[in-house]
Write a structure and sequence with these properties.
The protein has 238 residues and is an alpha/beta fold. It is 69% helix and 18% strand. The strands form two sheets. The chain has a five-stranded mixed β-sheet. A two-stranded parallel ribbon has the order 4-6. Helix 2 (186-203) runs parallel beside helix 3.
Length: 238
């Protein structure tokens, strides 16, 4: 059977058209395959990124857990510190109360010591009244019958002398002016010397003998007494 030219041409056109259709579908398939491959690669990259984010998230959670633990420990330390501060505040209040009580006790002690000093002072004067006259007679050839406490008024000021007596040295009248202190320091001598300066207005034309009597005389007191012409006499001296 032979084909007519018209039929052959028709068949060829149909075949060419089918080939063109197949070619177009193949190009679309290839394009779709390429796009699919790209999508797959992007999905792979996205999955990798998600995995990385998951790892980072886990690390963040671990760091957050450690940070939370540190915060809890710091909070515990702060609580303990606050408790310690409260305890110190209570101890401070107790200390202040104890200091206040001690201050009161010291004040009372000071008053009692002052009273005791007065008692000792009077006792010392009694000892001086017995010891000093004999000492003056033996060492200075001064005879004084009695020594007493006396007050003098100078320019409106009342000045007290622990030991005062009018005696004789040979045929001359001599006035004894003395101070008693249980422990005689340099400052005590200076204070007595200041008192004697004021009394000079009353005794400027009279002969005087100045002395200090005590249980204990410090070297500084003896040195200071020498500057002012004051004799220091200890209770044990005979």
């Amino acid at each position: 059977m032979s084909l007519s030219p018209e039929l052959y041409e028709t068949i060829v056109k149909i075949i060419e058209e089918k080939v063109r259709e197949i070619k177009v579908k193949r190009e679309e398939f290839d394009k779709l395959t390429s796009e699919t491959t790209k999508i797959a690669e992007n999905l792979k990259k996205l999955a990798q990124r998600v995995d990385e984010l998951a790892v980072a998230q886990r690390k963040t959670e671990e760091r957050l857990a450690r940070l939370t633990e540190r915060v809890d420990k710091l909070t515990e330390r702060v609580d303990k510190l606050a408790q310690r501060v409260d305890e110190l505040a209570v101890a401070q209040r107790k200390t202040e109360e104890a200091v206040a009580k001690l201050t009161i006790q010291m004040g009372n002690l000071s008053v009692n010591v002052g009273k005791l000093s007065d008692v000792i002072g009077f006792g010392l004067e009694d000892v001086a009244r017995v010891v000093v006259p004999g000492w003056l007679e033996r060492h200075e050839k001064i005879y004084v019958e009695d020594l007493t406490r006396k007050f003098f008024e100078v320019d409106g000021e009342l000045i007290e002398v622990n030991l005062y007596g009018e005696g004789l040295k040979g045929e001359k009248t001599i006035y004894v002016l003395g101070e008693t202190k249980s422990r005689i320091h340099g400052k005590d001598v200076k204070d007595f010397s200041s008192k004697l300066v004021k009394l000079n207005k009353l005794f400027q034309d009279k002969e005087t003998y100045k002395l200090m009597f005590g249980f204990l005389i410090y070297p500084a007191a003896e040195k200071e007494a020498g500057k002012h012409g004051i004799k220091t006499i200890a209770s044990y001296m005979r």
